[in-house]
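Justification of resources, computational component.

The compute hours requested in this renewal are based largely on the per-chain cost of generating structure records like the one below. Each record pairs the submitted sequence with a full structure-token output. That output is archived, and it is also reused by downstream analysis tasks.
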Amino acid sequence: PNLHEAHRLFANAINAEFMPAYTKEFNGFRRFIEAFKRAKELPDYDVYLLEGGMPLFPAYLKKRKNKNIKVIGLLADETFINLVERQPHYSFAETLIHRISARCLDGAISVSPMVKEYAEKVIDVPIEIARPPISKENFVKLGKVKPDLESNIIISVGQPRYSIGMDILVEQFKHAKKEFPELELWIVGKGHPKEYESVNGVRVLGYVEELSEVFEKASLFVHAGRCSAYPVATLEAMRAGLPVVVSTMTGTKEIVKKVENEVKEELGLKYEGSKFIKPLDKIVDGMIAYYSSDERGRMLLSEKYRRESEEFEPEKRAKHFKEVFEELLEGIR
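The structure output for this chain reads:
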């Protein structure tokens, strides 16, 4: 199955067997017709752990035939955000069926407090939080990176998906470039349009084998997520000691808030709200705030993000997920 590496680690922690939600790629309503067939093929397990929204409908159909099974959702995408605030990349049919089939859940594990808040508006079941890890290889490699905090390079990493908001970042970068003409924005990830490079200062790097090689040249990481549950790319940037600017719709904003508050206190800064967590149309203000800060402020941010990243060591996260899963299961049985 095409599982996110972090979620595969979670599944392995509880010795789960893997099964794809669908055997073929279908779009729109055909996907849900296929779900009826898939539901009949699901083996008779006592407990199902579902990753994201796609397996909800087959599990819902399965549970209608066997009410004794327990179904736990791993809330790691924007499925429940869409059920509260409609997102244009979800069809009406998909949204409706997700709303109905979410009733099959007996409990859930969310990857962030942000996603939990949305889910609680839709489902009335116990919801715990287990944050995802950085991969073992990247945890080690990125922990050795020394970013160039005086450089003018901004990095963003992600897939070309609506939820990631790379198009928003490119537009916001135009305004930052007016304030700081020497700035560059490097975009990492497969599939981003080369047309972004028509914007002065933007480079589309595509897939990069070693993130450490680009992170060490950068001074800031920006994620303009429209609805990003808990993007691991932001954690990887923190691991490399890169200060981070995120949108208000990015799950990792909790770490940004914690680090910013600590730096405010240490430097005796007095201002309301956050300089580095911004609405989508104000992401530029976060970039400008960072490049207006002094060397000491940047160093403190870097050091504290590196320290926070220690929590995302894979074995530590796997152990925590297993504990949370077992406690949740005990409570709903």
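The longest helix spans residues 314-332. The longest strand covers residues 70-75.
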